[in-house]
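Name: SecY interacting protein Syd
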Amino acid sequence: MSCLPALDKFLQNYHKAYLTSLSELPRYYPQGEPSVCIQGEFQPELEQAVFWQPVKREVEGSFANVEHALELTLWPEINHFYGQYFSAPLLFDSKWGTGELLQVWNENDFYCLQQNLIGHLMMKKAQAATHLVYWPVR
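Structure predicted for SecY interacting protein Syd:
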């Protein structure tokens, strides 16, 4: 079962909730980083919040380079979860608590995610540990 339908629905509900309750799109502080997600004018030198919405990528991002470099197979859904959209992180509240679904803001952010994953997995390999990945939570 793919995570993509759930991610699509979460993104739709996320934006609908903002529009319904605040009558505006979500805001994000992009720290000077451009993105196709930004709605309206973007002036990186001002370091101010921008309105944003997720943008489906034309070509899905892939972790094949990570798999090839480390000679291992990653969970296939990682390509859908991090490679389907450009988006700001998605904050949420649930009956289990609050959380944040990290997403990639732009192509450079996707590259940094890949590099962080490679570094983490290489460290695990050096420690002769299993390739267990804990995704960070803010």
